[in-house]
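User: Predict the full complex structure for these chains.
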Amino acid sequence: GAVVSQHPSRVICKSGTSVKIECRSLDFQATTMFWYRQFPKQSLMLMATSNEGSKATYEQGVEKDKFLINHASLTLSTLTVTSAHPEDSSFYICSADNVGKETQYFGPGTRLLVL
Amino acid sequence: QKEVEQNSGPLSVPEGAIASLNCTYSDRGSQSFFWYRQYSGKSPELIMFIYSNGDKEDGRFTAQLNKASQYVSLLIRDSQPSDSATYLCAVVTSWGKLQFGAGTQVVVTP
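Assistant: Here is the predicted structure of the two-chain assembly.
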């Protein structure tokens, strides 16, 4: 149980375009999902907390207008990187809060490369 | 002061030996503690969680928690080359946020 999927697993895009990443909880309902970013050889950095049916809560320094988060259902959250630039190239990982388990289960991650 | 601190390593461990990883945290009100393993280029996977003081064993892994000292550790017995990874300590703070340490890289040498 507690499987989280992400799509796509890898994406290459041109500078200035937008990229959407989907995060799904496959066998449980997640009222809360989290989006992380990880640069090479660095730890996970929480970008935002996504709550179903309400606005996401962004961490300090994360631009909410650049990283659009939508959590329309209990099993799906999306992160859209708008007007992507090369410095946005990173490993984006979502996780879902399994209610009652008090921990987070991670998706496999999406590697974004902006040319 | 970081909220969750780990030695970055690398921790080099001979195959078959015990790997000992340490983690300290600053929020005394933290109640839940987790260890994740992250292979290079992959996302973290949960390997252990512990809520109460003392030891918790699961296969070759033992988590140890000492809330008075604000210290949580992970022991890996009979280390295998497949255990080579970065191990992330994570703590749920008193305000309900999961905070990660920077991770300890473990290298198991044959």
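The CA atoms of residues 52 and 71 of chain A lie 5 Å apart.
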